[in-house]
Amino acid sequence: MKKYIIYFKEMPRKEKIKFLLYVFIIISLFASLIYEVIMYYKAPGRNVIDSDIRTKSDYLLGIIMLVAVSVAMCIPIVLRRHFHLYIPYILEIAFLLFFYCAVYLGEVRNFYYIVPHWDDILHSSSAIMLAIVGYSIVYLLNRKEIVKLTPFFISLFAFLFAFSIGSLWEVYEFICDSLFSVNSQKYALDDGTLLIGHAALVDTMKDIMVDCAGAFLTSSIGYIIMKRKKVVSTKFFLHPESESVKTLTLTTELKKMTPEMIEQVERESKEANKKNSTSKSDSEPPKD
Predict the structure, then answer these.
(1) Tens of pLDDT along 62-109?
(2) Measured distance CA(67)–CA(208) in Å, rounded
């Protein structure tokens, strides 16, 4: 145990913060999951008297969200370990805080009902982060080719990517409501009364419009930056760990890299991977 404590002390400050945040969120989600499962069996099937009392459907929705977010939290780890992608520190911290605010504070602590516009804040935040991921995808797909990509095209792709994921989330909520009779799309009142017509669509359409606004804002800012500077730094993008911070060029000639150029890039990438694996093995915590 002492060896691991020493290893933790030797970690960079940013890695310590990220590690502690992971541990804190995992403990919070695990404890909340146990609590939600226990309360699910104790809760009434439907509440028609006191709207402040949570029903089985409320706890079931919390359980589904906790499981889904627990799986989603593994995505950065999988990308880093199996695909060797560098995830910017700020972006990873933002995603972790988003998960915590959306599930623990939102569903478990009822911030969706206590804090005004809590749902809108989370949807706009997720759209901004997903737009950045959209820019990253363009970079990853085109990093081995010299292709003329206009700022408008790249920004459009980032916008559509973020907007599509936001729309898929609404599909996910609809499926959950249909299969488990929960109320994630807020198509019913707290007492179970079904909303009719336009009122039943308000929550879903509002979420989609907020996603659209967040994605549009981020892609517009990216478009303006690229239009003025012609290049955009990849330090805020997902990119291979073997590559240093480079730039995504938007004004190059329209031609593919020659086989010799690709071979050279791959050779440099392999050498960098060997150096990274060697340095990682030296920095791994000692085994008992």
Answers:
(1) 899 899 888 888 888 888 888 888 888 889 899 999 989 998 898 888
(2) 23
The pTM is what? 0.78
The arithmetic mean of pLDDT across residues 223-247, rounded, is 75
Of the candidates 218, 280, 266, 231, the one whose C-alpha atom is nearest the C-alpha of residue 80 is: 280
60 and 180 Cβ atoms separated by less than 8 Å: yes
Amino acid (1-letter code) at residue 63? I
Q: Is 258 helix (H, G, I), strand (E, B) or coil?
A: coil
Backbone angles phi, psi at 15, to 5 degrees: -65, -35
Instruction: Give the residue carrying structure tokens 């009392």.
Output: 53
Res 162 pLDDT > 80 = yes
